[in-house]
Amino acid sequence: MSYADLDAYSRRLRAAHDEALSEAGGAGGPGGPDPAARGRKPDPGEPHPAARGRGTGLGEGARWLISTSWRRSVEAGVDPEDGPAPLSLDLSHLGDVRDAHPLRPLLPMLTETLARMADESRHIVVVTDRDGRVLWRDGNLGVMRSADRIGLSEGHGWSEERMGTNGIGTALAVLRPVNVYSAEHLLRLLHVWSCSAAPIVDPDSGEVLGCVDVSGTAPSLHPATAALVGTVARLAESQLALRMYERDERLLRRYEELRGRPGILLSATGRVIAGDPGGALGPRVRLPADGERLLLRDGRTVALEPFCDGYLVRATTTAATTLPAAATTVPPTLRLGFLGEGVPTAAVGERRLPLSLRHAEILALLALHPRGLSAEQLSFHLYGDAGNPVTIRAEIHRLRAQLRGTIGAKPYRLTSPVEADFLELRHLLAANAPAALARTYKGPLLPRSESPEIRRERDELEVQVRACLLLHGSPDDLWTYAQTANGRDDLQILERLAESLPFTDHRAAAARARLYTC
């Protein structure tokens, strides 16, 4: 459909909408539609109110997307008289969810491309996750205040199952750019709004990551906005594809270093990268949730082995002879950095990932319980009696997608060798090695965590590290500890430094200055 067709469609739709509202006003008075009709769910086969005007000439192709969306919404139990969008995300966890979302690195590109246009034309830009939950919002302040009244703000859910036909929910449902204008919304509350939205699909995994949306009041939103929003979504996907190719190139170089290039090389998401010239596996393999065996379409069972940031697939019958000794696969080591005030990180092979606080807490608990934990046990350790195992299972699912091959199930456990800075502290305490202890200790374990189990571990480590350094540490060790969050204002540590270091040492002077200000 050309720009001119979109423009003509917009004019016809506005005219039909005005006529429909005029007829409703005549039947039910100035206050709106006939009260007897309120609360009645629409017949999915019935024309949309915006299309009831005679002689509108609305094409069937333009109406099909909306009518089928209405049908899905009604079947899901959405009532046209429903209120604002519900809060679907604990706002206290919003920062963690944002930090862990794959679209976070692309946010400047997404918002800067559309935000100025949105502000000047009295619109807002919204970015959601795959479930239609609003994660970021920007644009005209006045429109954002209006959006607050309908729940078009951070943490609120806009799936079709919750809010009926709308740009965000419908775009995620049909996986294509969508323009929903005024009375095309199922909910009457939204009839003064129009929105253009487009989904963003990860070219690596093929999974929907979220949606970008531009919303505003009906008189000011042009249908061509859908084309612009769709272009921005494709631009985001191209950036994701570029990063995917860079990862593939690094993995391929490591694969080519293997003698004989044994097995078929897969990405972390199951894409075939090399070693399958006949195409026996197809373009992508569905990775098993657990275990080291993969069942192919022809019934063969092959071994699936971690390799750097991906996998090697090889026939089980030749497992002992295909790979040379130097290439025998060992599960990649999972390295965790959870000490101190910085962003917690996990590294698998060459891949280093920043983690949300919640994902870091889960990994810390699994590292502290090598035998594994059930969802109920994890929930209790994280939240106490108020925990919900369903929430934990969802978080584990997301975490396993990020750290493929490192987390097993039934019970949940770490299946890779683990190197964690907080576990290293335990070994150094047992070995009574104060110098190495001072170098390793960067600060408290996940200092923002409120998990009862992690708080207990954090407090125990802090007490033991401090006691070891006071009893056996040199002035150098004590000074290193004094640079951490808890050591900075520790009176006993500072007094020991001021006493043990030469009076002219700059560290003694700094310790005396801190004592003076404490």
Automatic annotation (TrEMBL):
A Pfam family matched in the record: GAF
Query: InterPro entries per the record?
Result: GAF, GAF-like_dom_sf, OmpR/PhoB-type_DNA-bd
Q: Outline the extent of the OmpR/PhoB-type domain.
A: 350-414
Q: Which UniProt keywords apply?
A: DNA-binding
The answer to whether UniProt assigns keyword DNA-binding to this entry is: yes
Q: Which GO terms describe its biological process?
A: phosphorelay signal transduction system; regulation of DNA-templated transcription
Q: Where is the signal peptide?
A: none
Q: Does the keyword DNA-binding apply?
A: yes
GO molecular-function terms, A-Z: DNA binding
Q: Where is this region: Disordered?
A: 17-58
Gene3D superfamilies the record matches? 3.30.450.40
> In its UniProt entry, what is this protein called?
GAF domain-containing protein
Origin organism is Nonomuraea rhodomycinica
Give the classification, highest ranks.
Answer: Bacteria, Bacillati, Actinomycetota, Actinomycetes, Streptosporangiales
